[in-house]
């Protein structure tokens, strides 16, 4: 692997290598070459077919839409689940393997996959939706295992965004 002196050189090189690659191959290229350099933004840009200009725009200055428009995430902010909403929203999730986190208003689930490739594919699909929602999971991955905790920090507890992301993750785990 070449040593790159600037982030721009990394992305230029990636674009040259990625043009003929499959989506799975892109995931591997990105995970090995852009470690710690705004991977989710680059992955998202390539999935959307944005191209070089779009990627450069997405990575500079490594900020999300919320940073460009500080009010954006506040406008989309979901409130903490009410007692009635909690019961109806959590029932299907608790039945599908999610559990309540002790001493915290959060839900947790461990997903197991055939191998690392499936686990990473699941995380990539989830990351794309999470970025669109401006709602990011707390997660940990080792080989074929992905452990996830969901809670909305801005409301200090569970919100409708957690329910939506958990439901998506359940579906994504089955279709990987």
Automatic annotation (TrEMBL):
GO molecular function, one term: 4-alpha-hydroxytetrahydrobiopterin dehydratase activity
Reaction catalysed by this enzyme: (4aS,6R)-4a-hydroxy-L-erythro-5,6,7,8-tetrahydrobiopterin = (6R)-L-erythro-6,7-dihydrobiopterin + H2O
Pfam families: Pterin_4a (PF01329)
Annotated GO biological process: tetrahydrobiopterin biosynthetic process
Top enzyme category: lyase
SUPFAM superfamilies reported in the protein's UniProt record: PCD-like
Record EC number: 4.2.1.96
InterPro entries: PCD_sf (IPR036428), Pterin_deHydtase (IPR001533)
Keywords associated with the record: Lyase
Domain of life: Eukaryota
Family membership noted in the UniProt record: Belongs to the pterin-4-alpha-carbinolamine dehydratase family.
NCBIfam families: PRK00823.1-3 (NF002018), PRK00823.1-5 (NF002020)
HAMAP family according to UniProt: Pterin_4_alpha
Protein name in the entry: 4a-hydroxytetrahydrobiopterin dehydratase
Lineage, highest ranks first: Eukaryota, Metazoa, Ecdysozoa, Arthropoda, Hexapoda
Gene name in the database record: LOC113204592
């Amino acid at each position: 692997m070449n040593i790159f002196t600037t982030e721009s050189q990394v992305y230029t090189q990636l674009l040259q290598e990625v043009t003929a690659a499959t989506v799975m191959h892109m995931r591997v290229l990105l995970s090995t070459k852009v470690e710690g350099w705004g991977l989710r933004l680059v992955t998202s840009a390539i999935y959307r077919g944005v191209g070089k200009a779009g990627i450069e725009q997405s990575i500079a200055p490594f900020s999300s839409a919320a940073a460009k428009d500080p009010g954006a995430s506040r406008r989309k902010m979901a409130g903490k689940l009410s007692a009635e909403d909690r019961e109806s929203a959590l029932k299907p999730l608790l039945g599908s393997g999610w559990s309540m986190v002790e001493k915290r208003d959060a839900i947790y689930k461990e997903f197991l996959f055939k191998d690392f490739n499936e686990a990473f594919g699941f995380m990539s699909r989830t990351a794309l939706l999470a970025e669109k929602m401006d709602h990011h999971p707390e997660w940990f991955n080792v080989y074929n295992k992905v452990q996830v905790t969901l809670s909305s920090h801005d409301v200090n507890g569970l919100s409708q965004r957690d329910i939506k992301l958990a439901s998506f993750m359940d579906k994504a785990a089955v279709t990987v």
